[in-house]
Design brief:
The chain is 44% helix and 13% strand. By secondary structure, the chain is α+β, with helices and mostly antiparallel strands. It has one domain: NADH Oxidase (3-Layer(aba) Sandwich), CATH 3.40.109. Strands 1, 2, 3, 4, 5 and 6 form a 6-stranded antiparallel sheet that branches. The relative contact order is 0.23.
Amino acid sequence: MALLPLSPDELLTTTRAVRKRLDFDRPVERSVIEECLQIAIQAPTGSNLQRWHFVVVTDQAKRRAIAELYRKSWANYLTSPTAATNLRFDDPTRDKVQQRVGESAQYLADHLERAPVFLVPCFVGRIDGQPSSAQAGTWGSILPAVWSFKLAARRPQFFWPMALHRALRSPALARGLESFAAQLGLTRRFGSPVLFRAEPRG
């Protein structure tokens, strides 16, 4: 797969959320996911336990069900005064940017199930009732791999938007993904669609 000619500094300072310019009709090959995962699992983990698992969801019915749960969470999120769509700023430039952020987030919520692949990072076992230090260590052992996957996905016309980061705000969404992961003996942590970026249209 072709790589973008980016230095480490350029890679870290140009990675942005993308939601509107999506090519929902272009399939994402399994080899692309596997290649990015091979890079992601080079990330460090606490005690070098490497307890991560990545659940790849391509089934259309499952993607639709997850998207419906997400939209319920999104509707609840919109009631918060700190929701992206509700924030306003005195600075006209920043306020305009914030409005675009809200519009693009709404667009992704409306079209989420059209993403050809969902990736749900998980870890083995449970942390319910464990001290905060143990829970922090577990989170700290999966977040680097998640971010590494996102950076590995910075290929020409390819990206990985964060979408299901509101899972903890929605009991329904959390239960749905948790049930899915529990069938595999895992704990769900995050989830996002994987898509190709659409070419600009003249």
